[in-house]
């Protein structure tokens, strides 16, 4: 029986939850109460503190036995010793980022980019991300030696972590303090090489590959950075760093995304543009959706129309959505027969247009007074003959001005 369940309640787990259940609960809550949102800060801090305590077996046992109050008394009696977790719970601070307040320094965060589909960003998904990180050597559990008590006072520096290096130059001897190379300034090390861990050779850490479970929330944005708390590198003497996943949205053929809105292009025929249309799309929600325009409601070439709420869900408010905008390209027939033309004119022609259309059959291109429309790539520029010369002269004047000499003063009147 545990003394109090406050911390378990905070994480929403049973008091007999195992390490992986604790971690999952913490992970879920850390996402729910993203600390980057100001109103979540306090709640996240509480959750984080609870997890920090419970994930440490020793502290958890004490907590189960004595409860928070009991631990507080013990802490005062012993003059500290439980470390930063208690300062976070029992006052002293409240400054953001509790984990950095005191205790061992946290190793630098590492991370990677992960491609996710628009569908995963729409619906949310749990994905596996294979990561490479430095962790405690699995053979020696980060001790560096074959037995836990093989570490002793360093015999090179006598436990001081510092050595004096003497160098003789001529008649002069200079002395310099330096970190002990044998214990890396720690004062403790494994003195006997035969006790060194065979796997890591005393380095204590090793590169491991691991598959991390990562939650993609519905409405996640392209380039969003998800911090996985303490899933990054472990380094001797430091607490484990964070792992940062950067979600990159895979390009799709159909949709472009801006914020929570989606954009797509659609080609329709002249008949549809004038008479109404309907077509199906495969929506990122997974549904096949039929989009229509009522008969008689015309669509112009280049017009952008909207399907309300068919955009991406808004993160954290997943019942709200952006919009889907569709830009229409109306494909006109290349040519139409005289019969069709006659029929069309009967329907949409006016006296005025009839006159102008009648004239065009008589007109001849002469390059002077009568000009026929043709197609030409509008991105092709016709160069001015003096384009280059003009630029150079302009540049010269500027240089002169900067140097303060104004010999070629011709620009004044231009
Ligand atoms: Zn090892
Ligand atoms: Zn040493």
Automatic annotation (TrEMBL):
The keyword Metal-binding applies. Residues 379-414 are annotated as: Disordered. Pfam families: DnaJ, DnaJ_C, DnaJ_CXXCXGXG. It comes from the Eukaryota. Residues 124-209 form the CR-type domain. InterPro entries: DnaJ_C, DnaJ_domain, DnaJ_domain_CS, DNJA1/2-like, HSP40/DnaJ_pept-bd, HSP_DnaJ_Cys-rich_dom, HSP_DnaJ_Cys-rich_dom_sf, J_dom_sf. Residues 383-404 have a biased composition (Basic and acidic residues). This is Chaperone protein DnaJ subfamily A.
């Amino acid at each position: 029986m545990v003394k109090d369940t406050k911390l378990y309640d905070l994480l929403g787990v049973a008091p007999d939850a195992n390490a992986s259940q604790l971690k999952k609960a913490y992970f879920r809550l850390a996402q729910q109460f993203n600390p980057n949102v100001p109103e979540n800060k306090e709640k996240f801090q509480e959750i984080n503190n609870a997890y920090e305590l419970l994930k440490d077996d020793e502290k958890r046992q004490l907590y189960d036995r004595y409860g928070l109050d009991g631990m507080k008394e013990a802490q005062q009696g012993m003059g500290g010793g439980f470390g930063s977790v208690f300062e976070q719970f029992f006052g002293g601070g409240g400054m953001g980022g509790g984990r950095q307040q005191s205790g061992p320094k946290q190793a630098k965060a590492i991370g990677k980019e992960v491609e996710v589909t628009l569908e995963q960003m729409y619906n949310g998904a749990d994905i596996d991300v294979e990561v490479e990180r430095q962790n405690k050597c699995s053979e020696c559990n980060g001790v560096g030696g074959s037995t836990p008590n093989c570490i002793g006072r360093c015999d090179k520096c006598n436990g001081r972590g510092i050595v004096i290096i003497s160098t003789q130059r001529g008649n002069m001897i200079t002395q310099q303090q330096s970190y002990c190379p044998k214990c890396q300034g720690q004062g403790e090390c494994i003195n006997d090489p035969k006790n060194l861990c065979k796997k890591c050779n005393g380095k204590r850490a090793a590169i491991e590959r691991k598959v991390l479970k990562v939650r993609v929330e519905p409405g996640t944005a392209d380039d969003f950075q998800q911090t996985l708390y303490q899933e990054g590198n472990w380094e001797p003497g430091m607490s484990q760093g964070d792992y940062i996943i950067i979600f990159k949205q895979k390009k799709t053929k159909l949709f472009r995304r801006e914020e929570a809105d989606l954009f797509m292009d659609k080609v329709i025929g002249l008949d549809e543009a004038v008479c109404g249309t309907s077509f199906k799309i495969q929506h990122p929600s997974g549904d096949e959706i039929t989009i229509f325009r009522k008969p008689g409601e015309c669509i112009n070439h280049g017009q952008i129309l909207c399907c309300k709420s068919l955009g991406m869900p808004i993160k954290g408010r997943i019942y709200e959505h952006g919009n889907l905008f569709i830009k229409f390209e109306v494909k006109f027939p290349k040519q139409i027969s005289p019969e069709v033309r006659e029929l069309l004119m009967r329907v949409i022609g006016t006296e005025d247009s009839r006159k102008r259309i009648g004239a065009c059959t008589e007109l001849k291109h002469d390059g002077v007074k009568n000009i026929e429309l043709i197609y030409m790539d509008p991105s092709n520029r016709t160069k001015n003959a003096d384009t280059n010369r003009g630029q150079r002269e302009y540049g010269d004047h500027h240089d002169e001005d900067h140097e303060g000499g104004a010999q070629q003063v011709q620009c004044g009147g231009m």
